[in-house]
Amino acid sequence: MIYSQTKDAVYCFPCRIFGLENTKIGSSEGVYDWKHLGDYLKSHESSRQHKNCMLKWFNLENGLKSCSTIDFLAQPQIEQDRQRWRDILERLLAIVNFLASHNLAFRGHKEKLKSDSDSSETSGNFIDLVKLIARFDPVMRLHLKQVKDKTINDHYIEKNTQNELIQLMQLSIIIRFFDTNTAEIEEHLIGFLAVEKNTAESLTNYLITELEQLGISLLNCRGQGYDNGANMRGEKSGVQKRILEINPLAYFLPCGSHSWNLILGDAASSCVQAKSFFGLLHSTRLYILLAGSSQRWAILNAHVKSLSLKPLSETRWECRVASVKAVKYQISDICDALKDLAENTTDCQLVSECHSIEKEITTYEFVVSLVIWYDILTKINVISKMWQNGHKHLDVAIQHQDRFTNWLDNYRENGFQSSLVIER
């Protein structure tokens, strides 16, 4: 069994590989009925189709080991591609490490892979460094060429991958201090630590050891901040509690941006209609369907000219406004793309999925949800970006939050009626 975090579903590995599309557990949909999962697995495990797929899997494995199958001839190419992607990720990780270590911004105003002759002032440091390396490195040069020629769909250069690469570097230590010479508050990244255990005790020891090696006394600390993970903010045995036991003046404040996103996520998850709405936008449905292959994406681009469809961000709720905006202002073009895709495929399941999604995104409830969530997420996006401004004062941030709360109260009373007018 395999589990997909993106789709929140489980799959049977051999049935998925050997094409049992007529069963949920072997299709791209997967099984997410957790209440009846046990009964479903027992029934599936004893089915003839599953046993045939298991037999094919064992035969393939034995054939590869004995070098007696056609698939064995493809293994060198598979290994070559695997090594190529490792080389690409190694270079991208090096760029992430360089930018973070030098306290440099990653992103620009317009993150597009332009040609070398075009200006790259607004592309962002991350993409500019990718292009710089590509001038001298054949691996990255070939990768960028494939991205520009649209011969590959996943290129791992977009902002979501940048965030994932940062998280992969695990524990990062950032120190904020007051510079008595300039009377400014400074913030510097000390570095990344590779940790073997994520327990509160281990993380605390890693942190203390690193500070001692740098000659920084923990007793001079007057504050600490982390995300809202239980191992970090735990009141009884979290990292913040262990640090407070060493230095009672190191008061703890959770990360405001992370708390903000948790509130938004919990608020939306409490509403069945919201979960259904965002699930249709991304999880196994609209975006996943159209981004499933370069051919499908080309059909979409032929109809959608302005705003490209975007996947939903799992960590930044305010970024979902771009996903909602692309559908809100181009819903008729997206429907045309779905019709075109259905007419130009022989895959019966794909045809059915296209018709199903087209029907769902043109329902009254979905269109009204588009209007409502676009209004809300637009306000949330403004607030989030304002809070991340390093020069914004706390009192001003609180004022903006109060204004947003008042706007939300008013929108709860009058926003639905205005959304109905816009929807028409």
TrEMBL record:
Xref: SUPFAM superfamilies: Ribonuclease H-like
Entry-linked InterPro entries: RNaseH-like_sf
Protein name in the entry: DUF4371 domain-containing protein
Organism of derivation: Parnassius mnemosyne (clouded apollo)
Classification lineage: Eukaryota, Metazoa, Ecdysozoa, Arthropoda, Hexapoda
